[in-house]
Amino acid sequence: MSATVEISSPAQLSALLSSSRIVVVNFYNEENTSSKAIAPVYDQLAGQLSRADRVTFAKVSTVQQAQIAQSYNVTNTPTFIIYKNNQQIKKYAGSNPQQLSEAIKTLAAEAETEGGGYSTGPGEASSSGSGEWRGASLPRGYTDVTDAVDPRGLDLLNADSDFGSVKKLFDMSQPVSLLNGGIRISGKDSETRKDWVESDVDNQLMLYVPFMANVKVHTIQITSCVSGNDEDDEAPVRPKTIHIWANRQHNLGFEEAEDIPATQTIELKPTDWNEQTATAKLELRFVKFQNVYSLVIFVADAEGDSEKTRIDRLRFIGEVGEKREIGKLEKIDHDD
C-alpha cells in the first residue's frame, strides 16, 4: 500500500503540487473525531490510486502546520483539497467518504488517459477533461462554485431575445468567440451559435442569481468578447460600472436599484480585461459575501457610447457551504 506523504513544511507541499499531476491533500486534526473516522478510507484510496508523478496523496496536520492551513484557507477539519497541475479544482469540508471517493476516482481515471489533465492556456484560461472552462486562474485556497447556481431561479432583465438565454452565462464550455484561442467576433460558428447575452433597449442589464447552497463569494469572473472597434457605435461593448447586492429575495427593478445601496460597486477599467480570454476579475470585499444565498448583479453602464452591453460567461469563485432546501430562501442578516 502506498503511504500518504506527511507534509512538514510549506516548501514541501509547494514542490509536491508542482511535481505531481494530481495531488489530494487531507487537512486533519489529530484530536478531531471526524478526521480520525475518515483516515482509514483516505489511506485505502491512497493505496489503490497512488501513481508516481500522476496521483499523490498528502496529509497536513492543522495543529503542527497551522501556518500551512491558514495560507490555504482551511478553517475546519477534515478538509480535502484536490489539485490538478498545481491548480485547485475541488474542496470538500467534512467526512463524507462516498463523495471523496467518487471525486478522487474520477480524477485518477482522467490522469490515466492522455489529454485528461488540467491545463492552463494563454492568458490564464483554464479547462479540464470534463470540459470546464474559465477565463482566469483561481486564487489560492478557493474553488469554482458556479455549479452551485440554481438555474431555475435565474432572472435577467433587459436582455435581447435574439441572443442566448441567461443560462448560457453559466455554461461551463469555452465561449464560441474564443474557440481559436483569441477573440473572434465574426464567422459562421459565432453568428449561428450566439452563446452570449446582450442588452436590449439600452446598455443596462439586471441579473438575479440564486444559489442551491450558501456560498462564500471571493471573486466574480466576467467574460465579454467584444470586437474593440471604436469606430462602430453600434457594436456591443463591455460592462463598466457594476453594482452587486447580496441576499435579496428577488431581482431588483431598475428604478428600485437607484434607492437601495449596493453591497459593493466596482468600476472596471479597460486595463482590467485580459485580451486573450476577454475576462475581468471582480474582486469582492470578502467579509461582505460570507454567507450568500443570492446575488443581484446590475450593469449600470458600459464602455463607450453603444447601447449594447455583451456578457459571454460568469464564474463565481469562493467556497460552498451548507445546502439549502430547494425553493426556500431564508433571511440572512446583511448590511444594506
From TrEMBL:
Domain Thioredoxin: start-end pairs: 1-109
Amino acid composition bias (Low complexity), ranges on this chain: 121-137
Signal peptide start and end residues: none
Keyword Disulfide bond among UniProt keywords: yes
PROSITE patterns: PITH (PS51532), THIOREDOXIN_2 (PS51352)
Disulfide bond among keywords: yes
Any GO CC annotation of this UniProt entry: cytoplasm
Sequence segments annotated as region (Disordered): 111-139
Annotated PITH domain residues: 134-336
Keyword tags: Disulfide bond
PANTHER family linked: THIOREDOXIN-LIKE PROTEIN 1
Family, as annotated: Belongs to the thioredoxin family.
Name the UniProt record assigns to this protein: DUF1000-domain-containing protein
Organism, scientific name: Clathrospora elynae
Lineage start: Eukaryota, Fungi, Dikarya, Ascomycota, Pezizomycotina
